[in-house]
Structure formats: structure tokens, C-alpha cells
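Budget justification aside, the reviewers requested a transparent look at the raw inputs and outputs of the sequence design task funded under Objective 1. We therefore reproduce one unedited record. The lines immediately below are the C-alpha cells for a 114-residue chain.
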């Protein structure tokens, strides 16, 4: 997608601080972190949001979750805990319409969702 900011990050047109990469997944530090660890995990394939996922994306989704495990270990928060968040749609504040998961942790956040 030519005008997608995360596609541009994945293909190197826009710089990012890479944390982890596989054949299907790219992960990088959020530009505006909301926790000591705030990493964005994105599929390299452009998928606009959670709404656009299909059964054909099962491999991508497994890779995203396995990447989250690996990144949590790399960041040293696998044992202390972390949250994996997807915002889908404008009511919950999705601003970039390329599917992404926020991996946040590194501080005590309690269990409240909202
Ligand atoms: P959303 O609100 O769509 O769930 O999250 C989008 C996230 O992307 C935000 O946390 C925002 O800080 C991050 N972001 C937006 N533009 C850039 C960018 O150019 N580089 C990086 N690293 N993060 C970005
Ligand atoms: Zn994209």
C-alpha cells in the first residue's frame, strides 16, 4: 500500500528502531511510547485492521503471537508480564490502518482493561 506509514517502515522508506523480524512479521519501538516497553508488531503484508483478517491469515497471526513471546523475552518482561493490544476502528483509537499489536510492559499496570 503506497500511502501506508507502516508499509513504508517495513520497506525502509521511513526509519524505525527494529526490535525483531521474521519472514512475515516486523516489530519496532513505538515512536511515542506509553510504557517502558512499547513495541509495535506488524505483519509485512498490508492488512488494514483486525476486521480484514481471514482464515488465510492464520500463519501470519501465529507468527505475530510467537514474535510477541520472543520480544517479551528479548525485552526482559516475559516473567514480569505484558499486554498485547490491538485497536480496531476509530472508537478505540486506531490511527494507523495497517494491522498492528502493541506489546506494552515494563511497569505495573494492574488488570483493568479500560
Ligand atoms: P493505533 O492508535 O493505531 O493503535 O497505534 C498507532 C501507533 O503507531 C501509535 O502508538 C503511534 O505512536 C505509532 N506510530 C505512528 N507513526 C509512527 C511512526 O512513524 N513510527 C513509529 N515507530 N511509530 C509510529
Ligand atoms: Zn500497510
Amino acid at each position: 500500500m503506497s500511502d501506508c506509514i507502516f508499509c513504508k517502515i517495513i520497506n525502509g522508506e521511513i526509519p524505525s528502531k527494529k526490535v525483531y523480524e521474521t519472514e512475515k512479521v516486523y516489530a519496532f519501538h513505538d515512536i511515542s511510547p506509553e510504557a517502558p516497553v512499547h513495541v509495535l508488531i506488524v505483519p509485512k503484508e498490508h492488512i488494514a485492521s483486525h476486521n480484514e483478517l481471514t482464515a488465510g491469515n492464520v500463519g501470519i497471526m501465529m507468527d505475530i503471537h510467537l514474535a510477541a513471546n520472543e520480544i517479551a523475552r528479548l525485552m526482559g518482561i516475559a516473567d514480569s508480564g505484558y499486554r498485547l493490544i490491538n485497536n480496531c476502528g476509530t472508537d478505540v483509537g486506531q490511527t494507523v490502518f495497517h494491522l498492528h499489536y502493541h506489546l506494552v510492559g515494563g511497569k505495573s499496570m494492574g488488570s483493568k482493561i479500560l
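The pocket of zinc ion (ligand 2) is lined by residues 1, 4, 6-7, 46, 98 (CB under 6 Å). Helices lie at 5-10, 58-74. Computational costs for records of this kind are itemized in the attached budget.
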